Amino acid sequence: MFDRIKEDINSFRERDPAATSALEVILLYPGFKAIRSHRKAHWFYNHNMFFIARMISQRCVRKTGIEIHPGAQIGRRFFIDHGTGTVIGETTVIGDDVTVYQGVTLGGTGKDIGKRHPTIGNNVLIGAGAKILGPVTVGDNTNIAAGAVVLDRIPKNSTAVGVPARVVRRNGERVQDLDQIHIPDPVSQELCRLQSEIDKLKKKLEDIQ
Q1: Are 33 and 60 in contact (CB under 8 A)?
Q2: Are the C-beta atoms of 99 and 126 separated by less than 8 Å?
Q3: DSSP of 75-117, one letter per residue?
Q4: Which residues, including other chains, have CB under 8 Å from residue 47's CB and lie 6 or more apart?
Q5: 117: which of 82, 92, 146, 180 fits an S-S bond (Cβ 3.0–4.6 Å)?
Q6: Which band of pLDDT confidence, cut at 50, 70 and 90, is reported for residue 196?
Q7: How far apart are CA 120 and CA 98, in angstroms?
Q8: Which residue, among 199, 180, 185, has the nearest Cα to 125 in the 3D structure?
Q9: What does pTM read for this prediction?
């Protein structure tokens, strides 16, 4: 247990330049408090003590503004930065080394039964305000840009942006960790492609004339 706590603390210190000490993380970081509360709530949930599990979960919401259902399965070194407004649904599955920013929703669509929430792979970054909805899968080593709305499967080693989210980078080098700004704009890319096609057609017309 203590090794896992130490591991969680280290993940915060490594990924947040503002964290100056372990004590600061333990006492002042809502993301850390939410993760530790979830570990306890999840234990009670797995032992069919659902009321106690939800009580721990709801108490955490009031303290941190982060809502994680006790049934959610979360891997190691999970990092929630800031975290206010973050919601993680009951059947969500999250891998190891995942980073989540504030305002993220890993939720349902309201029309699915059973597995209703996303499955997030290892080493995934989910930017501020992003929404991943339904029983979709986000592959390993993937970035979801701030404000994106993911409604379909995102393959591994990808970058997805927009509403609804579209993959703009795949099977290449991963975008630098913790960078939510320098991400390709799919609209700009499409306009450039169309302009290139127009230029080619103009040249063909000129040749014909």
Answers
A1: yes
A2: yes
A3: -TT-EESS-TT-EE-TT-EE-SS-EE-TT-EEE--SS--SS-S
A4: none
A5: 92
A6: confident
A7: 8
A8: 180
A9: 0.77
